[in-house]
Structures are given as structure tokens and as C-alpha cells.
Amino acid sequence: YFKAFTKQFTTGENYQGADRELQTVRQMMIDFLQNHSQEVRPPACPPLEPVWSSDITSLFDKNSHHYTAIVFESNSSYIGREVILDLIQYENILVRRALNSDKAFLEKLGVPSVPSCYLIQPNGSHGLINNLKPLRSFFSSYLKSLPGVRKKLLLPLQLPAPENKEESPETKVWKEFDKSKLYMADLESGLHFLLRVELATHKMLEGVELKTFKDFVTISAKV
């Protein structure tokens, strides 16, 4: 795990969970992200903390340019945070999570059980999304399908300005590359990464590690 804004060189921190199941690893990653964002929140990191009933009420009857979805869930649920992260690359929608601790508020909104997804439309109308299975995949798929909700466009790559033809009469033609072939540039890049980056994470090589490295250099020299 690599924390954002780390000022000192680090090779990352290793974490061992209770098991190696995908769900466990994903939840552990979400915990890291949420806890880290409380220290120094990276700009691209969405808020993962639950909102309160007063925050939700203030969103009602207000015209907006985007949808707001609130996932109501229990304290032990990760669905809300998973949906928030699923929709981070989409625009015209904001996703938040709220806990089911305020039973009276949930009853007022007509939320019979959790997890449930409540939607506030851009025109201010709001209501529970019915007929959705209480699963992350169903919540995320439904929200992505709303009219106007689409993936954010990445900024176009800024290409260098074309050279003056008078100064450079020859036009450079990019060579097509064959994905089935291995190029010298790939080998050089791999060797550079291994020797300058991966090897640099070891302060000292000795014993089996040193022998392995010597064998690697010998083979590299031969081929």
C-alpha cells in the first residue's frame, strides 16, 4: 500500500488480511483509502464517510445539475463505499452513503430495509429506487444507466506543435508495431526497471539473492 503525498522514499507497506478472498482484500483496500483520506485527502479521492439525515434533507427541493444517490446501509456494510468508488469516473451524479441509525428518518423516507438506494433527481424530486436487488452490482449498473450520466472524458493528449516544414523538409513517419513481436525497446525498458528500480529497493544482496542476481546477469550476457 502506497500512501499519497509520501515525501520520503518508500517501497510501500505490506498488509496481511484474515484471508486471501477477493471480498476481504477489497474491503481492506477501502479501509486504507478511507483512513488515509482523513489524514491528507488526495484530490481524486471521493468522501467515503457517511452523511447525516440533516445533510440529506438539505438536498431536497433544490434544483441541481446532477443526480444525487444515497445508499442507506448498516454500519458493517461496504456496499455504499463500493458504489461510490464505482461511480467515481462518471459525471452528472454524486453518490453518498448513510447509515440506518436514524430509524425515524428512514421510515419517513419510506426505506423499509437496508441496503437501499435513494435517488434525488436534478429537478429536486426524490424517492427510493424500487425493484433493485440490494447488491453493489445492481446499484452501480442502475446509476450508470441514468439519462445524462456518462464516463468523464479524459483531457486530450497535448501533442507537440508541428515542426516548420521549411526548417525540416523531411516528414517523420511513425513505424507500425506488431503486437506479436518483442522489440529491443521493450527489453531495454525491462532491464532498466529491474536494475534501476527493483534492485534499488534492496540495500544489500547476499546469499541466495546474490547468487540469483549473478545467474541473471550471466544469462543476460549470454543471450
TrEMBL record:
<dbReference type="GO" id="GO:0003756">
    <property type="term" value="F:protein disulfide isomerase activity"/>
</dbReference>
<dbReference type="InterPro" id="IPR041269">
    <property type="entry name" value="QSOX_Trx1"/>
</dbReference>
<dbReference type="GO" id="GO:0000139">
    <property type="term" value="C:Golgi membrane"/>
</dbReference>
<feature type="domain" description="Sulfhydryl oxidase Trx-like">
    <location>
        <begin position="42"/>
        <end position="149"/>
    </location>
</feature>
<protein>
    <submittedName>
        <fullName>QSOX2 oxidase</fullName>
    </submittedName>
</protein>
<dbReference type="Pfam" id="PF18108">
    <property type="entry name" value="QSOX_Trx1"/>
</dbReference>
<dbReference type="InterPro" id="IPR039798">
    <property type="entry name" value="Sulfhydryl_oxidase"/>
</dbReference>
<dbReference type="InterPro" id="IPR042568">
    <property type="entry name" value="QSOX_FAD-bd_sf"/>
</dbReference>
<dbReference type="InterPro" id="IPR040986">
    <property type="entry name" value="QSOX_FAD-bd_dom"/>
</dbReference>
<dbReference type="GO" id="GO:0006457">
    <property type="term" value="P:protein folding"/>
</dbReference>
<dbReference type="Pfam" id="PF18371">
    <property type="entry name" value="FAD_SOX"/>
</dbReference>
<dbReference type="GO" id="GO:0016971">
    <property type="term" value="F:flavin-dependent sulfhydryl oxidase activity"/>
</dbReference>
<dbReference type="GO" id="GO:0005615">
    <property type="term" value="C:extracellular space"/>
</dbReference>
<feature type="domain" description="Sulfhydryl oxidase flavin adenine dinucleotide (FAD) binding">
    <location>
        <begin position="178"/>
        <end position="222"/>
    </location>
</feature>
